[in-house]
Amino acid sequence: MSQRQRKWHMKTRTGCKTCKIRKKKCDETKPTCLRCIRDKFTCDGYDPPRAWVFKPSQKDDLGSGSPPDKATESSILSLIDQENDLSQWNSTSSELDTCSLSLVAPSSPWAAETDRNFCQYFLSQFAPMLSTTAQWEYFWHSTVPQAAWSDSSISHAMVAVAATFESRKSGVDRTELILHRSNLAIRAFAAQQASTDIGLIMCRLFSSMAQCKGDFRTATMHMNSGQKILQEATRTRKAKSSDILRLMAPTLLALSTYTIDDSDFVTRISPDRWESFRILKSIHLEYGRLLRSFTSAHWDRAAPGTNSLLSIAWSTLTQAFSSTLHPDVISFAEDPVVPVAQIIPTLQAEEALLSIDELNAEFRSLIRDLQYNFHTAEGEASFSQAMRRRIRRLVDNYVVQAAEVEPRMTAGTFWHEYDFPHCCIDSHLSKCELSESKLYETHLGNTEVLDFERKKHDFYVEHVCQYRSGFMPT
């Protein structure tokens, strides 16, 4: 009788702690897995993502030839294990005994203890805070560390950012280290002909460092530099080839909508759509000015849902306008947004679908009414349900009209059924969490809907929260 052979499957080690202990297959829903909820267990969450970095001996002697420690050994064995699974090759212990491995330490940017410590702090503490979507998680945990390995400007900037965040959290004064590493990063960057991707990573790192200090003026200046890189890449047709540029483009354009050069776009569309584009641009600018005024004067005394609604409206307008300008670079097709094809039937059913001229007139009226509401509000600045519906209806129509101007535009809407008070403004150095129990009760355990709502939450934190995304007009 032939020996029973197990069906091959890809192993995973990313499940929650509780499922690992119970030896159950985890569905990896975050922040709390549905299997634990269904089986009435307390989900203990997930281990933070770990990026393997070559770890020299404690004496920093890269050529000592000393055996790897247990953590490094475990990482190596896990890699061997995964390779075996993929090749469907079952090795015996004797075969493993005859296997010889040679470890040659590459030239590491993390040779010094300070660098190693802050690299690990960057990966374990700083990166998770900004990993708001799957794409950004990959950016912070993989793309940036990989770039740092080969580019000293990025490695120095990583240390400076991690030290800034750690200093803010611990209260330890690390000003000298931060300034020293920032200067080294700038010098290394200036001494090379940096690629588009390296330039964008530097802009994001220095912007995040300024945000961590509460210096949003400087943060905006760094992101404006990134916007100039975007414009140049678009002009030279390099934008399509850069995944990093496509990831950062929505934020970069949102920060500089007052100075965007749209001359190329006007020559790309037919003359009969020029006036519609002009109206969309004007509406976007006027709403941005209104929101900027509201932020400086009324943000702290607004009702919880008011800030969230106004911010979502702003980022929706921004995404529609930006995707209209650069449909090949800025795409929301894979994001949890309601597309134009679904927005139109809803507006038609409500008899609320507007022409571009009607949208222009009603939006001007809305802005005047909002200004009056802000100036006359006593106590909390809040909206009636009628006003909230009015804002949503006009923003929905704006997205529809943007698609009329540029049919390849992929932005949509992502209104929420629940509020995030102040958009995490008061605790922006903490991870924004969503109440799992509230979601579960709202959607009665519907796995598909729950997953979509979580993605909407992550999308909100990345593209709406001004402390994380920069989408607020400055």
Describe the protein.
This protein is mostly helical and 474 residues long. Among the domains are: 12-47, Zn(2)-C6 fungal-type DNA-binding domain (CD2-Gal4); 114-255, no CATH class; 270-418, no CATH class. The chain has helices spanning 17-22, 34-38, 70-87, 93-97, 113-130, 134-150, 152-170, 175-190, 196-212, 216-235, 243-254, 263-268, 274-298, 304-325, 340-349, 356-376, 385-405, 436-443, 447-463, 466-469. Helix 7 (152-170) packs parallel to helix 9 (196-212) and helix 13 runs antiparallel to helix 17. The radius of gyration is 25 Å and the shape is globular. Mean pLDDT is 74; it is low at 1-10, 50-106, 421-429 and 469-474.
How are the secondary structure elements laid out?
Elements: H1 17-22, H2 34-38, H3 70-87, H4 93-97, H5 113-130, H6 134-150, H7 152-170, H8 175-190, H9 196-212, H10 216-235, H11 243-254, H12 263-268, H13 274-298, H14 304-325, H15 340-349, H16 356-376, H17 385-405, H18 436-443, H19 447-463, H20 466-469
Helix pairs in contact: 5-6, 5-7, 6-7, 7-8, 7-9, 9-10, 10-11, 13-14, 13-16, 13-17, 14-17, 15-17, 16-17
GO molecular function: DNA binding; DNA-binding transcription factor activity, RNA polymerase II-specific; zinc ion binding
Protein name: Zn(2)-C6 fungal-type domain-containing protein
Keywords: DNA-binding, Metal-binding, Nucleus, Transcription, Transcription regulation, Zinc
Shape: globular
**Tally of DSSP β-strands:** 0
The percentage of residues in β strands lies in under 5%
Which runs of at least 5 residues are low in confidence (pLDDT < 50)?
1-10, 50-106, 421-429, 469-474
pLDDT averaged residue by residue: 74
Q: How many strands, what sense, and barrel or not for the largest sheet?
A: none
- Helix and strand string, N-terminal first? HHHHHHHHHHHHHHHHHHHH
Output the number of helix runs: 20
Report the radius of gyration as a whole number of Å. 25 Å
Helix and strand content put the structural class at mainly alpha
Helix content: 55-70%
- What is the terminal-to-terminal distance? 74 Å
Domain Zn(2)-C6 fungal-type: 15-43
Protein name: Zn(2)-C6 fungal-type domain-containing protein
Keywords: DNA-binding, Metal-binding, Nucleus, Transcription, Transcription regulation, Zinc
GO molecular function: DNA binding; DNA-binding transcription factor activity, RNA polymerase II-specific; zinc ion binding
